[in-house]
């Protein structure tokens, strides 16, 4: 059973991300483990048994509002109902959190990002960069101003010559229960020449489509060399619901302005799925 690890700082953007995480969990049939990174109220010691394997001694909130919110959504669900777990991370180092995620083979980490910079979220911005560099699963960053809906189009932006099959496979498996399209959008790396359109489509068919069977898997060769303009084309021109990148590979730094801060750049107004390098 898959497990989605939801980072919670008791903010509005965390709740927004939680609702998307819940929607994904219902579609792909995954459980949800809420990781609370700030303390609210009294905590008690319990044992988590169902979500991450074995018994681990931990502390959980006695008033877990986000957990209650998701459990309320469960009462309204007609199909799969994910198990909602809760764990306190406030006293753990980011290294410990990363080890926990890897040890228990979390399928995806989900974290909300605020629409505006705040002192509250600033203290956690460096943490997510550290976690991204240490864990083995992708991280879904959900902007507070994004619209939470079913996915219809997911795009993986990469130089086709270095396109990673496991990223495409993950996206197609995630997209399938939504009936969503998945597109590999080729954007040549700075130091490399553009690929001829006909040749790039041939490479896509021979290297990607032969390895991954998905009826709604598509390709486009983006000739625009300006990454910002290319991102605008992908998000707004193509009505994309989710964009995927590989951490520290090719266009990543240009898209996120160097590294992940407490907020995403304003031109990224859709969920951003970042895969480990």
From TrEMBL:
Superkingdom of origin: Bacteria
Name of the protein: Universal stress protein
């Amino acid at each position: 059973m898959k497990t989605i690890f939801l980072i919670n700082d008791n903010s509005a953007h965390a709740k927004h991300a939680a609702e998307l995480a819940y929607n994904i969990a219902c579609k792909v049939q995954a459980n949800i483990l809420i990781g609370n990174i700030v303390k609210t109220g009294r905590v008690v010691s319990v044992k988590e048994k169902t979500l991450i394997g074995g018994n681990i001694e931990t502390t959980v909130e006695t008033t877990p509002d986000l957990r209650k919110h998701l459990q309320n959504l469960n009462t309204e669900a007609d199909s799969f109902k994910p198990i909602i777990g809760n764990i306190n991370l406030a006293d753990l180092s980011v290294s410990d959190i990363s080890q926990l995620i890897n040890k228990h083979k979390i399928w995806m980490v989900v974290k909300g990002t605020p629409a505006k910079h705040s002192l509250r979220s600033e203290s956690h911005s460096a943490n997510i960069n550290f976690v991204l560099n240490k864990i083995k699963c992708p991280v879904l960053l959900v902007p507070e101003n994004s619209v939470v809906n079913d996915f219809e189009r997911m795009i993986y932006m990469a130089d086709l010559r270095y396109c990673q099959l496991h990223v495409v496979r993950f996206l197609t498996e995630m997209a399938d229960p939504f009936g969503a399209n998945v597109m590999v959008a080729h954007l040549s790396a700075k130091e490399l020449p553009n690929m001829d359109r006909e040749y790039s489509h041939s490479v896509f068919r021979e290297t990607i489509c032969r390895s991954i069977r998905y009826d709604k898997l598509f390709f486009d060769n983006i000739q625009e060399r300006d990454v910002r303009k290319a991102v605008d084309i992908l998000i707004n021109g193509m009505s994309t619901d989710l964009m995927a990148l590989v951490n520290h590979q090719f266009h990543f730094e240009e898209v996120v302005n160097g590294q992940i801060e407490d907020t995403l750049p304003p031109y990224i107004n859709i969920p951003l799925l970042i895969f480990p390098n």
